[in-house]
Each structure stands twice: as structure tokens, then as C-alpha cells.
Amino acid sequence: MFAVPGTAAFTAGSLIARLPFAMFGVSAVVMIAGSRGSYALAGAVTATGLTVTALVAPWTARLVDRHGQARVARPATALALLGSLALVLCVRYDAPDWTLFASCAATATSPNTGAMARARWAYLHRDDPASLHTANSFEQAADELCFMTGPALAALLCSALFPEAGTVAGAVLMAGGMLLFTGQRSTEPPVAVRPPGTRAPLRAAGMPALLAVFLATGVVFGALEVTTLAYVDGPEAGLLIGLQAGGSCAAGLVYGLRPVAAPGDPRRLAVCLAAMTALMALPLLAAASGGSTAVLALALLAAGAATAPTMITGMASVQRIVPPGSVNEGMTLAVTAILTGIAAGSAVSGWLAERAAPGTGYTVPVAAALLGLVAAVLRARRPTP
């Protein structure tokens, strides 16, 4: 993978820049819930930020496709960092609740580093499907590595230093990582001129069903995170969230080593969703049975095993169906659907954490995975080219 000059450097920058995405959610929940005493408010604020990001991200990605990654990502990152720092100041100085929503919404210009990295691999391995499958699997494992270490790091910083430490550290990492990533110009995909009459990625055949799958997967992520934070209610919650990502990371690496004839096969995606639905029941059973934290940790570790294969197959499907010159926009639409789902899952689980029995929120990932499975099965019945 790293034989091409510049790939190791852009991968390092990508990892550093995307780690804060796994930190900001936990940091904001811990920071706001600790300051205002409400998980519902914390969940609503983070959901607002994710929702606005979901609306803005496709436009940012379209600008990246049209004008280049470095030219757009750097100023967009600067604007997002200002929003993060504003959120810290508003919490620190006890500003009105509405300022928290406004500050979090201001972070919406954050470029999708994972999508830009995948766009680089798609460009470098455009004539080698096997290598592209390995690269996509590696990128998903990298995502999970960030989500494995990010929440734990955020929880540790917020509890060991001060409540705002996780957000501040995330802002510093994002700035440094983005500068390193965008500095590797030799691997940056060239700006492609879209031919007149070319369909937008959103209108590509099979894309709506794929977005429904990604939306449901996002609900799984958001619900697992907030429910675990509320159920465990301590610094070890970040470690448990990291275990779920750890199971997915390991599964992604194993999946990437297997040769796949058709990476975007709709039937394979349906199988992955079926496995996810079954495995997401494990945390619910652990919580309902009153099991120890260790039992819940094992359940979350096992639950993550189907996540990476699902995401890898889904992203491969997006790369397969979007028009040329729109890869970044297409994958950002997928991530936008995930963010929208995370926002919904976070809000619903935050509401359940305050109004229902502990662990009830683990029903949300099961239901969401089942809905994703339905969308995948319907798409598999009418395969796209």
C-alpha cells in the first residue's frame, strides 16, 4: 500500500486529523453534562452539531472535488476550529444554553478526512480493484482505530485535567493533522471536470438505498456511544466504547486480507447487516441481565465485529456507482447519512437515559441495524450495475 511516495505521510496526517472526530462527541457530552447536569442537553447539542454538519458536508465535498483538497480543506478546518473553541468558552463561562447549540453548529465546516483519504486511494488504485479493496479495508480499520482510542483519550483528558481538555486537545490535533495531510500534494486527486448532463451522486442508481443503510448504521454508532456513557457513568465508559471500535478494527483488518471478487456486491452488504443485527443484541442482553462491566465490555467487543465489513462493503458500493469526478462527494454523502444517524441515535438515547431503565437505550442499535438490513435486502433484490 505504501510503495507510492507520499502515501505514508498522507495516511499519518489523515489519522491525526480524524482522531478528533472520535473525541469531540464524548468530550462535548462529558463537558456539557458535567457543567449543566443534563445528558439530554448534551445529547441535543451534539446532535445539532452533527445535523448541521450533515447538511453542510456535501457542499464542502463538492467544493473539494471542484477545486482540490488542499485549497478547500484548510480554510474549512480553520472555521470549524473556531466553532470548537467557542463551545469551550461558552461552557467554561456558563453562557446561555442557546450559545452551546450555535457554537456546535459552527463546527459544521469540518472536512471529511476519511472521505478525502479514500478518494486518494481510489485515484491511486483506479486500475487495481484488489489493491483498492485492501486500501478501503485499511481505511475502515483506521477509522475504527481512531474510534477505539479517541473516546478513551477524551474521557481520560476530561476527567484527569479539566472538562474542556478533550475538546481543546482535539482542536490541536485536527489542525496539525490537516496541515500534514493536505501538504502531500503528489497523491492528491486531480480536479476532474464533470461532463455536462452527468447525474449528481445523490441521483446515482442505488444511492438512496445505500444512504438508508448508512443512516441506520449511524444510529447504531450514536446510540451505542451515548447509552454506554450514561449506563457506565464514569471514566471507564470511554474504554468500553473503544472496545466496540476495537472489535470492528480487528474485523476490518481480517476482511481486508481476504480476496473479494466484487467488493460492492449488494448481497454481501445484506449479509453484513444481518450479522450486525444479531451482534447488536449482545450489549442489550448484557445490560438487561444486570451483568458486570466486564460482561458488557465483552458484548461491545463482539458487537463491533460486523461493523467494519459493513462499512467497507458499503463504501465500495459508493465508489462503484458514483460518476467519475464525484468520488469525494459521493463518499461524503455516505458519511453525511452516518452523521445524521449518529445525531438521531445520540438524541434518542440521551432521552431514554433520563426517562427509562438503565440500558434501555441498547434497544436502539438493534432496531436501527434491523432497518438497515431491510434497506440492504431491498437493494439486493434489484442490483445496480
UniProtKB/TrEMBL annotation:
MF-aspect GO terms: transmembrane transporter activity
Transcription regulation is among the record's keywords: no
Residue ranges that the Swiss-Prot or TrEMBL entry lists as coiled coil: none
Record key words, sorted: Membrane, Transmembrane, Transmembrane helix
Membrane-crossing segments per the record: 12-32, 39-60, 72-91, 209-231, 237-257, 269-288, 294-318, 330-353, 359-378
Domain of life where this protein originates: Bacteria
Official protein name in the record: MFS transporter
